[in-house]
Amino acid sequence: MALNSLLAYINNYVSLTEEEERLLETYVTKRTYLKGQYILQQGDICRHSSFITKGCSKMFVVDADGQEHIIMLAVEGWWNSDIASFINQKPADFNIQCIEDTEIVQFHYDTIETVYTLVPKLEKFFRKILERGLAASQKRIIRNFTMTAKDRYLYFKASYPDIDQRIPQYMVASYLGITKEFLSKIKSQIAQER
Amino acid sequence: MALNSLLAYINNYVSLTEEEERLLETYVTKRTYLKGQYILQQGDICRHSSFITKGCSKMFVVDADGQEHIIMLAVEGWWNSDIASFINQKPADFNIQCIEDTEIVQFHYDTIETVYTLVPKLEKFFRKILERGLAASQKRIIRNFTMTAKDRYLYFKASYPDIDQRIPQYMVASYLGITKEFLSKIKSQIAQER
DNA sequence: GCTAAATGTTAATCTAGTTTAATATCTTTT
DNA sequence: AAAAGATATTAAACTAGATTAACATTTAGC
């Protein structure tokens, strides 16, 4: 069940007592979305920090030309939120939309500091996953600078084989920062090399 | 003096008591580096999380072709560390080198968890700056996808006018993910537009 | 099972940014 | 103040990836 997978995830980083788990339960809410629904829309204020327990989402911006650019693809065990919007309670730059029917467990902005006070281990937990997130984000910037589109695609496939199967190619292309046509070309190149 | 600027910075995010400040002091060390010296070298394990109190540094990788790619330029009031190396105590992918004579105040990996325990506000502090760091890193990925090199340069100049003045153009180019020749072209284009 | 919509492919043309190489300028050392 | 090293500019040739457009295939709704 949804809450348990969140607890199991948190317990990989810190060890919550039974009591702390009970307390935490009272501060999170479960929500479900259908494929296509938005967890967050550009311009709205991001009120929640959401943990995906089932399904798949994309976080993206729409640029001046109406083109979609995906910064993040998330499946079970990933976090979803426009952090800048969440921490400043300012309108979001990013959209978060479900690619499959999706179930999330969420913390609300208004109570999250209370949760940190009641269960300081959760502040440690978020500190740790933010460290990992920032390290990963920096490495992604470097990959985008140093690797060709083809190598980035191969890296993506190897790193996230599960995500690669579940979402359409044109979203993978957007995540990689290239056009769907060019990804198609890359794929046929790779196929010929065999 | 160095320590005071760190304390002032931390107090922007959390409010330390006199006693907490005293305690913190016993866990940080000051170091100075000359221009050109390395705070961290690729392959070494990152043992410290460093706050710059004076000077300027670059964080970069050297790719297979021997080319340098800068992920981060840091001046007074910025943090420096290869986070992945620091949290996992594994060899660093990144180098951190001083561009000017530089003074830092640093936390050591071996005692930082102790500091968090003694002064939980510091865990909150790091959680907050990591949130900001991750938000900024994600926005940079999007800028790299959506903006032309010229617009990224103008954005950089506007956002970090102080850094722009202090470091050579070829490092700005590397930070922007373009060649120094192309940045030179962009600059002459901009000059002609006036 | 049919139709429409969504997704994917191919190929020609185009362009932002790279590469190479030569020259210029600025900074530091002696 | 000369020489050497570091930094910056310019321009020609080149390439990774974008754009456009036509067509193919797969998926979902009825």
Measured as a percent range, the helix fraction of chain A is 40-55%
- Quickly give the CATH architecture of the largest domain in chain A: Sandwich
How many angstroms does the end-to-end distance of chain A come to? 43 Å
Radius of gyration of chain A: 18 Å
The residue ranges of chain A in which pLDDT falls below 50 over 5 or more consecutive positions are: none
Strand content of chain A: 15-25%
Helix/strand order of chain A: HHEEEEEEHEEHHHHHH
What is the tally of beta strands of chain A? 8
CATH topology of the largest domain in chain A: Jelly Rolls
Q: How are the strands ordered across the major sheet of chain A?
A: 1-8-3-6
Tally of domains of chain A: 2
Q: What's the number of helices of chain A?
A: 9
Average per-residue pLDDT of chain A, rounded, comes to 95
The CATH superfamily of the largest domain in chain A is Jelly Rolls
Helix/strand structural class of chain A:
alpha+beta
What is the 3D shape of chain A?
globular
Largest interface: A-B, 33 and 33 residues
How can the largest sheet of chain A be summarized?
Answer: 4 strands, antiparallel
Oligomer: homodimer
